Amino acid sequence: MLRAAGLEKAGQEAPRRATNKLRERLGQMLDRGQEAYHRIRAVLAKTDHPVSKQGFTQARQLHARLASAMEQVSSARNSSESGKELSESEVLIALLLSTQTVWSSPATRAVQTAQVALQPLCCDSALRIELKSNARERRELTNQITSIGNAYGEQIRQRCLEKLLELNVDDEVLLSRVEGTDLLTSEVEAAWWSDKPESDKDYQARIHELLMQIRYAQHDSLVLVTHDDVFNELFSHNLNATAKAKNSSLADELATGSVPHCAVVWCCCDFRRGDGAFITDFARLDDSLPAATLHADADVLSSVGSGS
Fold first, then answer.
1. Which GO CC terms are listed, alphabetically (predicted)?
2. What's the whole-number mean pLDDT along residues 168-174?
């Protein structure tokens, strides 16, 4: 009897232990499910992130360096007339400064970067900034800093200005120039973003379409302000092997790494190639730009004259 009773008791305890373990596992699964749900909700709730205070400072620094480069190239050209040849970096910087148009992702921080950093190009030559939907950031649920648009058409200009004001930018001249920047919004007059994540196939098709827009653009040179995932896509699928061999470390960084904010990369594209490797040469230009010290916003702007 004792033994039988003991067996009966053991038989009752086993289901209880199994039930408790099952409850524990279900609780863990529920916790993980709730965590994933809140993570996805957080991503879905992300907005069109404006430039941060640090990002604004980086854009101002690039602005100052471009303004300084304009003076340096002008001086070098005067010297070249006397027989001195421009260096390779000076030639590339001169090409950058003589660009014929500026294209930008319609994301707020990209437009703000163009408006601030590229003022030496846009204000001096009255270049307009064309907003290109295909240059936007990839929509990913696994990336919690992915932006999603919430403004289109002329609303974009107003949002960019409002978000700069929230940074307490105490520079009326700069803000006036940002407000007066000529934005071409014909491609983003309606919602240019997607609420759904992009598959690899859809994303690659969009970037290919962007490349075709570049190929058939009416200009021979342009500046594209975009995001690091677009850099990664362009350099992982369209870089010529010979060009990659010349600077494999930079090629790998641009193809797979996180591209530094306000990085400037020059590319030469030959769309006559049949292998799809359109990028036949490239170089990192921001490292070659002359240094410039930000003493005060007014001082930097004065070096630009009346001309991101």
1. cytoplasm
2. 84
Question: Does the structure show a pLDDT above 90 at 174?
Answer: no
Same domain, 128 and 208: yes
| 9 and 149 fall within a common domain | no
Same domain, 12 and 122: no
pLDDT at 142: 66
Own/partner contacts of 201-209, CB < 8 Å, gap of 24 or more, are 203/138, 203/233, 204/233, 204/237, 206/134, 207/134, 207/233, 207/234, 207/237, 209/134
What is the C-alpha to C-alpha distance for residues 253 and 231, in angstroms, rounded to an integer?
10
Q: What is the residue-averaged pLDDT of the chain?
A: 82
- Beta bridge pairs of residue 164: none
Structure tokens at 83: 């027989």
pLDDT of residue 90: 83
Asked whether the predicted pLDDT for residue 300 surpasses 50, the reply is no
User: Are residues 294 and 242 part of one domain?
Assistant: yes
Q: What is the pLDDT of residue 302?
A: 25
pLDDT band at residue 92 using 50, 70 and 90 as cut-offs: confident
For residue 183, list its beta bridge partners: 129
- 32 and 66 together in one domain: no
User: What is the residue range of 29's domain?
Assistant: 1-45
Q: H or E segment at 130?
A: strand 129-131
- The answer on 108 and 90 residing in a single domain is yes
Are 89 and 135 in the same domain? yes
> Helix 53-80 crosses helix 297-304 at what angle (to 10 degrees)?
30
Token output for 27 = 């609780």
Partners of residue 282 on adjacent β-strands: 267
- Compute the distance between CA of residue 8 and CA of residue 5 in angstroms, rounded to an integer: 5
**Contact by Cβ (8 Å): 85, 91:** no
Q: Determine contact, residues 111/131, Cβ cutoff 8 Å.
A: yes
